[in-house]
Amino acid sequence: MDNFGHLDMKNILRFLVLFSFIGNAVAQSDVTVSGRVLVVDEGLGDVAITVRTAENDEIVTGAITDTEGRFILRGLASDEYIVDYSAPGYQTDSTELLIGIKNTIYDLGDITLIRSQENIEELVVTGVANTGGVSLGARVFNLSDNVAQSGGSMLDAMKGLPGVAVEQDGKVTLRGSDRVVILIDGKPSALTGYGNQKGLDSIPSANAESIEIINNPSARYDAAGMAGIINIVYKKEEKLGFTGDFGMTVGVGALSKRREDLPTDLGSFSSNPKIQPNMNLNYNTDKAIYFLQAEVLFQERLPNNEFTSRFYDDGRIIDSQVPENREQIHYIVKAGADWVLNDSNSVSLSGVYDRERHEDNAEVPFIDRATGTRNRFWFWREEEVTGFANISLSHKYSFAEAGHELDSRIEFTRGWEDESYFLNEVSPVRVGTDATFLDATEYTLPVQLDYTRPLANGRMEAGVKYQKRWIPVSYIFEPGERSVIYEGLGDFSEWDENIYAGYANYVYEASSFDIEAGVRLEQTDVAYEFSPENIYYDENDAYDYFEVYPNVRATWYINDENRLAVYTNRRVDRPGEPELRIFAKYDDPELLKVGNPYLRPQFTNNYELAYERLWDSGSLITSLYYRDITNSFSRIFASDTSNPDYDIVNRIYQ
After folding, report:
1. Is position 226 within any domain?
2. Which are the contacts of 84, defined by CB distance < 8 A and separation ≥ 6?
3. Cβ contact 344:364 at 8 Å
């Protein structure tokens, strides 16, 4: 009878706890709280866990421990709570719980219950958690809540975000700098890169849930990116079974021109129509998720329409225009699967195939402003195929405590650029045709291991990463009569980089303040090989450097409506392939764009003071930041007087 009565009491407790949840629902969040109830070092099952507000004792949620004494609570909003633990035959215990704003998962640890016939002091364990809501360190913008941003591409959606600007050629800047890292679901993607986010123009914003802006990243993230990080979070379908949607985006593009074209037969596109069908298919089971996403973009666009005026010492003023009329087809296919192997292990496999083919046509006049005479007529056609293929494999090991995880990841990416330029000229000097053919391939192989441990008052993160990247480039040119193409560059170059990194990061929260501190250590080895026929760069380049990248963030909660935060971190911007490329771009033959193979990284120390004012209807963030940049990248203009027929200026990185 005693055993029967004991079981009946457990069922009554279950009923009371569940009934309390139904009658006292409150605003929920994605917070997860876990812990374990023990008796004499052994897990105690069927313990009733109830959570009540500290202010008015209102019960908001609860749970029952499993046979090992473990429990998980979900959906608590930011507030102060009391967690009660009760079981027949044991003294009731309680824990104070503060839900902050920096952590979404935390562990209350072990709570030991004492048998009721024993008389010892009460054991109190205090823990802290977070809703991941409004934060001075990161701002989240939900696209589904904004009708204006839910249509069009991801680039269109970014144009309305504070601190973000999108230039005509698709370059994204954050706080005035294009040295911004763009992640997709928290991971690097070959769709994006420094100063080259054109791949985002082919992603429908309807496929994304939100955009997160992180101006001061922690040591967990790669040290690259002076301006910070923009993270695009894709929508995730959670319904079981087969689901899917199909969409179509149609745009008419620009309906007017900001400036009249200079006189040529072709001019620039006066309209830029776009058609973009897309689909999203999902099949979910209890143990697996399968997905397939595909988009096709048909578009006429004007990625570059550059007007230039040249002022010469003899008083001449020459006006020119480079209108890059582009017709393109862009395909993106993304597929993958997530498998839950057991309670502790899950595996994800995904792949992306991206291919774009475009043809650019431009007629570039050089007109004397005083007389209206066309001194030179340069016209060209570019045929280019770009894209990448990526495969990624990751494994997650989940410990018994919620949020206690070990993630491993390996991926391989092959990107390519196959470019053919056919250059033509009519001038008093010559009538000629030149052609250049460039084939660049970029290989990236990162391997990463990340460890996360929730704590009672924050979390600890640590990890290691190795990344190898190498870029072989081949170059062929066919000179015409009195060619303007530089000779003596050779027919190849190869750039190689190896990065060895490790990091540790710690977050601590209290009721009136929180602090995050971390450090990232990186050793980088770089080598650049040129063709022996290159007469401009007679030495191959190789160097290495070791750097420490610390980060500190501290936030003071003055009251419920006012917060003050300070930040400092160190970042690096490594030169990419466009900044290093030794083969010039000839879309404007008198203003050449060329890289610098001896370019070194630039380092930035960031300092920021931020204030946030909260209202029920929104918030206002004001910040003052300062950047101290060492070895800053810049374009220099160098005149080349080796050709007596033309005035040539090289734009070179230094």
Report:
1. yes
2. 48, 49, 50, 51, 52, 92, 93, 94
3. no
Beta strands in 15-142 (DSSP E): 32-39, 42-43, 48-53, 59-64, 70-74, 80-86, 93-100, 105-112, 127-130, 138-142
Residue 122 confidence class, pLDDT cut points 50, 70, 90? very low
Q: How far apart are the first and last CA of the chain?
A: 87
Q: What percent of the chain has pLDDT over 90?
A: 25
Residues 100 and 167 in one domain: no
The one-letter amino acid code at 264 reads T
Q: What residue numbers bound the domain in which 326 lies?
A: 250-398
What's the confidence (pLDDT) of residue 23?
37
Structural contact between residues 34 and 403, judged by C-beta atoms closer than 8 angstroms? yes
- Whether 138 and 126 share a structural domain: no
What's the pLDDT tens digit per position in 22-34?
333 333 457 888 8
- DSSP for 401-462 reads STT-EEEEEEEEEEEEEEEEEEEEEESSS-EEEEEEEEEEEEEEEEEEEEEEEEETTEEEEE
What pLDDT does 408 receive?
Answer: 96
Helix (H) or strand (E) holding 13: helix 2-23
Largest CA distance in the chain: 112
- Pair (254, 190) in one structural domain: no
pLDDT 10s digits, 574-606: 887 778 888 888 888 878 888 888 889 999 999
Residue 293, exposed/middle/buried by CB under 10 A (0-12, 13-18, 19+)?
buried
Alpha helices in 70-110 (DSSP H): none
> Which helix or strand (DSSP H or E) is residue 257 part of?
none
Q: In terms of C-beta density within 10 A (0-12 exposed, 13-18 middle, 19 or more buried), how is residue 511 classed?
A: exposed
Residue 2 has pLDDT above 60, yes or no: no
What does the pLDDT average to over 129-142? 54
| Beta strands across the sheet bearing 591-594 | 591-594, 648-653, 635-640
